[in-house]
Amino acid sequence: MDRAAYADNIAEVLSGAHGAKVGYPIGLCDVEVIRTEQVGAGLLRITFGGADLAGFHSYVPDEHVRLIFPDENGELRLPRKDGLSLEWGAPRPVSREYTVRRFSAEDRELDIDFVVHPGGLASDWAVNVQPGTRIHIAGPPGGEVVPRTYDRYLLAGDITALPAIARWLEWLPRESAGWAVIEVRGPEEEIPLGAPAGFEVHWVHRGDAAPGTGDTFEKTLRGLDVPAGQRLYVWLAGEAGVLKPLRKWVSTDLQVGPKDRLIAGYWKRGIADYDRDE
């Protein structure tokens, strides 16, 4: 199925009442680092390019790919194409999951924003990589497609969710309304956002507290004045432990059903390559 056919599938969900996951054919692209750019103090943007991106599928803000790295012995294992999917085999190739920040089919370019932190496999690679370096990228396996017809949207997360939130705010119609709540270390990690005029943007500064600790982010969310009786879509992402009490708040206090929310643990303190939960 070509890109136009998948765009038609997504258009069908967009015209409906609720969000839904739409699967894509899962590709494996051999790409080249084209350029790097610092985005605020906390993110490093890498632009990838290459002929393989001619078959890359990207349509909506919530999409993820996996970058594949050599193992500790320097051996690079790659998944194998299996129809419209990939067979990862055992031992599983070493990979890390990242959000698609921008994709241009015309230019065959893909942007990924990396959170800069010491000791992370992908972060250390991103900080040191030079243009011309090649790497394999798998996915995305699909995207969470959300109609643009909700009365309001609540988008919130820590800096790992910032690339997706930024893409969300650019993707939504200019008449959209809602809230974007983002936790960062301080003003130096804030970035310009293309938010519709009807959005309130709240930057939550954690200061010297370690990522994934403290309750300022949760208090900010609970303090929002969310009108009753409106159709609300909620998208939350970040550290799994921080999100745990917010799941009940979204379902019980905000009364948002499972078809109108996505809550994803992107990472968990002390665990490398945490398997995100939704």
TrEMBL record:
This is Siderophore-interacting protein. Residues 26-147 form the FAD-binding FR-type domain. It holds the Pfam family FAD_binding_9. CDD domains: siderophore_interacting. It comes from the Bacteria. Gene3D superfamilies: Nucleotide-binding domain of ferredoxin-NADP reductase (FNR) module (3.40.50.80), Translation factors (2.40.30.10).
